[in-house]
Amino acid sequence: GEDVEQSLFLSVREGDSSVINCTYTDSSSTYLYWYKQEPGAGLQLLTYIFSNMDMKQDQRLTVLLNKKDKHLSLRIADTQTGDSAIYFCASLVSGGYNKLIFGAGTRLAVHP
Amino acid sequence: DTAVSQTPKYLVTQMGNDKSIKCEQNLGHDTMYWYKQDSKKFLKIMFSYNNKELIINETVPNRFSPKSPDKAHLNLHINSLELGDSAVYFCASSQDPNGELFFGEGSRLTVL
Predict the structure, then answer these.
(1) Of A72, A76, A77, which Cα lies nearest the Cα of A89?
(2) Under an 8 A CB cutoff, do B42 and A98 touch?
(3) What residues of A are in contact with residue B93 (Cβ under 8 Å)?
(4) For residue A11, what is the enclosing H or E element?
(5) Pairing assessment for the beta strands B107-111 and B87-94 based on DSSP bridges
(6) Mean pLDDT of B7-27
(7) DSSP letter string over B66-105?
(8) Contact A105 B41 (CB under 8 A)
(9) What is the pLDDT of residues A43-75, one digit of tens each?
(10) Residue A17 neighbours by CB under 8 Å, 6+ apart
């Protein structure tokens, strides 16, 4: 089946690292994405990782993929108040035409 | 210039009415999508069109009818609106069915 799961809330102190976790079920997932949604706004692609990679780093963002366990994480270093948003994990599932399957989103709250 | 634009941004209407949401992309992409985000922020694909041809239809009630007059436009018409149709509807586009998605800012529909 096609399912993506994330924890719903995360609260961190400004300056700390945030780690948002995600699990997916479909082994045919080719790409895995992290999107950010700020209040009242659309979805912004933050980063993505190809399924044959273990890790990808992009400035303050680090994505780790454990393909065996179908587990994806997003680490945000030195979290700032501007990082407060909902973060969606998404899996690109192949088969006919590819579909992007989203998790329910993790609401990240950054406090002073 | 907005890459993916949707109108209207907000729509409030009564149960039983018929309404449309329009989407246009100026990226030259071949593939367009409609996603629905419910009150719990869960995002689910509804439809996808590639070169004006419907390629994904995810068990959406037939009260929802997408129309793609050309590759740059994908409109969503909803008949006999129900309370459960209240959501934010996101349009997106990609270069092809396997490409990165670019999202519009969403259209918030409220059915009273």
Answers:
(1) A72
(2) no
(3) none
(4) strand A9-13
(5) antiparallel
(6) 96
(7) EEEEETTEEEEEE-S--GGG-EEEEEEEESSTTSPPEE--
(8) yes
(9) 888 998 988 889 999 999 999 999 999 999 999
(10) A75, A76, A77, A78, A79
Cβ-based contacts of B48 with chain A (< 8 Å): 97, 99
B69's CB contacts (< 8 A; 6+ apart) are: B52, B75
Sign of the C-alpha dihedral computed for residues A19, A23, A24 and A27 taken in this order: positive
Q: Quickly state the pLDDT bin for A95 (edges 50, 70, 90).
A: low
Nearest residue on chain B to A47, judged by CA atoms? B100
Residue indicated by tokens 């996603």:
B35
d(CA B39, CA B42): 7
Task: Report the gap between the CA of B30 and the closest CA in chain A (Å).
Answer: 13
pLDDT confidence band for B9 (50 / 70 / 90)? very high
Say which range, A25-34, A81-90, B64-73, has the weakest mean pLDDT.
A25-34
Distances (CA, A) of A76 to A14, A97, B21, B34, B87: 11, 32, 36, 29, 29
Report the length, in residues, of chain A. 112
Contact between A30 and A51 under an 8 Å Cβ cutoff? The reply is yes
Show contacts of A48-54: CB within 8 Å, 24+ apart. A48/B100
d(CA B93, CA B87): 20
The structure tokens listed for A22 are 């995600």
Give me the pLDDT at residue A98, please: 67
